[in-house]
Amino acid sequence: MHVRSFQLSDYRPVTQLLETVLSAECYEETMEAFARQLSWDSELVLVASVEDEIAGIIIGTIDQNKGYYYRVAVRSGYQRQGIGKALIRSLRQRFEQRNVTKIMITADEHNEPILPLYESLGFAANDFFRSFQKLSIIAG
Length: 140
Known about the structure:
Layout: E1 2-5, H1 11-21, H2 24-41, E2 45-50, E3 53-63, E4 66-74, H3 83-97, E5 102-106, H4 115-120, E6 128-129, H5 135-138
Parallel strand pairs: 4-5, 5-6
Antiparallel strand pairs: 1-2, 2-3, 3-4
Helix pairs in contact: 1-2
């Protein structure tokens, strides 16, 4: 597995992954945030590849010197193999390189089921940013 920055050639496989893994409502919200984040700072969108196949993606953003994990998605055939954790750790490194003062997890209704994944990596309840605003509003 290799974690790297998103590249334009990843667009089709990433959108297919998101459409497959996420609910329709979550997909629409995520695609809007994904497009905005790519226009702001594509270095905070990471993909995990396994043998040249996109297995997972994580979308983050920085707002007012705080790093936010927005969405992580892993293709069903690759789940529970450490890919989500690798993406989270890699994005954390990017946040730390940029000297963010706090790292938060956007805890919307779509992320609730994976909050235990973040907890397994040492995040606590006070690291969850519960907001019903979309990423475009938070970081815009």
